[in-house]
Amino acid sequence: MEYETPLFFHVMEYADRADRDVIDMVSGNPDWEPPQALRDGLHEYADLEPDQFQYPPSDGLRELREEIAARRGVDTEQVVITNGAGEANYLAMARALERDRGDEIVLADPVYPYYPGKTTMLGGTQRFVPTDETGHLDPADVRAVASEETAAIVVNSPNNPTGAVYPAETIEALVEIAEEYDAILVSDEVYDHYDLSGTFSSALELDSEHRIVTNAFSKSMAITGFRVGYAIFPPDLVENAKSRHMLVNVAGSRPSQYAVLQALRETGPAYYEQNRELLRERVETFTDALDAAGAEYSTPQGSFYVLARFEDYPGTLENVERLIDEAGVAGMPGEAFGDSRRDWLRFALVTPRVEEAAARLATYFN
User: What does this protein need as cofactor (predicted)?
Assistant: First the structure.
C-alpha cells in the first residue's frame, strides 16, 4: 500500500531551504503564550517522585479523564487520552470501519488532508461532498451519497481550511443520517475555542450512540508539541478503541497530561477570549490587505485560516513555491485540500508577522 506524505511537510521544507526571509503561514502552530498554569504544572512535575516518571495508565491519567468527562457531560470511561487530535481521529475512524457496516468514509471537500490519508491507511474508501462557497456542508448532500456502505461521516467544525462553523441544525442532521445508516459521525472539534461566530455546536449536545467526538489541547492552549488529545466514544465502542490505542502507543506522555490538567483546572475564560480577540484582529488585518490585492477570500467564522484566490494564480504547489521565492510568504496550495478549492491558497494566521505578510502579498499581486 502506498502512503502519500502530506504536502505540509514539502512546503515547510521548501520554505526552510529558501534563499530569503520567509513568513510561515503554513502550519497551525499558535504563536501566543500557553496558560501560565501549564508552565507552572511543568515546573511542579519536575520535582515529583521517580514513580511519576513511569508509564501513565494507557487510556490517560484518571484525573485528566475525570476533568474532561465532567466538562463534557459524559462518563469518565468514555474518554480516551490520545496522542493529539490526530490519533483521536485515527481511533474514531478505525472503530467506525471495524464495525463491518461498510467501508466508505464521507468527507467534506475541501478537506483536511489527514482524513483521506487515514481512510486509505485503514483500508476505507473516500466519498467527497462539496461544501458551499462559505465552506458549509449541506446535510442533504451528505444524505445523497450516504448508503449501507457508509461507515463514517467525518466533519471538522470550526473548519480547517474554510473557517466555517456548522450550526446546531447541521450537526443534528448529520447525526440523524449516521443513525439512519448505522454509521458513525466523527466530529473533530479541535478548534472549538476559536469560534468567532458564537454559533458552534458540539455533537456531544446530542444523545446518540452514533457519534464520536474528538478534540485536543494543541490549539486551545497553544501547545501543539505536547500531543494531548482525547476522543469520547459511545460506551459500546470504547473498549476496542482503548486496546488499539494501547497497541499503537502503549501510553501517552505523563508530564504533558499532568501540565494540561493543571491548566484546565486553573485557567479561566479570559485566556481563551484574549486569544480569540487576537485572532479577530489578525483576520481583519489580513483580509483588508487581500482587498487591497484584489483577491477573493473567505472570512473565517472560526479556526485560524483564510482561503484566498488571486486572479490567474491557481493554488498549485508550483505557485506556492513561487510565492515563497518571490514574495517571501509561505501558504498551502488549495489542491492539498481536495478538488473544490484548487484555485485557492490557504494561509494560517498564527504568526506575529500577519501584517507584514499581508503587505507582501498586496505588493506582489499589484
Answer: pyridoxal 5'-phosphate
